[in-house]
Amino acid sequence: MDLTQGTAEEKNRRAKKMMLWFGIVSLIMGFAGWTSAYIVSSKREDWISDLELPQAFFISTAIIILSSITYFVAKKAVGRNDQKLGTIFLLVTLALGISFIIFQFKGFSQMLENGYYFTGPTSNIKMSYVFLIAAVHIVHLVAGLISLLVVLVQQLRGKYMPGDMLGMELGATFWHFLDFLWVYLILFMYFVK
Q1: How do residues 68-97 score in pLDDT, each as one tens digit?
Q2: Which residue range or ranges hold the Heme-copper oxidase subunit III family profile domain (predicted)?
Q3: CB 139 within 8 A of CB 178
């Protein structure tokens, strides 16, 4: 397929999708770097191998998986021209996204209560990585929430219709990526001791 062919609208759609994928690939590279450093650092003598991740991280994992399902349902509903159901599920996705962040911070609090700190004399390199990886993911999830808010506002304005849902498609793709990224990260931190 020749990417230079097609109408201006088709080229615009392809360009927007390509930019999203460039962004996603760059995020993958960043997190691959941090997880690689995590693996290399795990060979250090001061590495804590018996550390348990906070329970709140696992609850937040269930929440973000559920939010991906609700975003999927919202997109399908709008694709069937069920605008009301689409809006409801976008709102549920927003609430779940906010809940995810709340539980992430509860996880940070649990780590602090257990005496694990990001920096300082009582910190540990493993805990610093756990804090860093989770915090950077939260920053990207905030970007996902902003994207979701834009999609929600556009949905409320009646912008999306079957066959004309580019913004929602892009937002959903980014959201699902953030979901899969967190599932990978939590499994990585759980299994790489």
Answers
A1: 999 999 999 999 999 999 999 999 999 999
A2: 1-193
A3: no
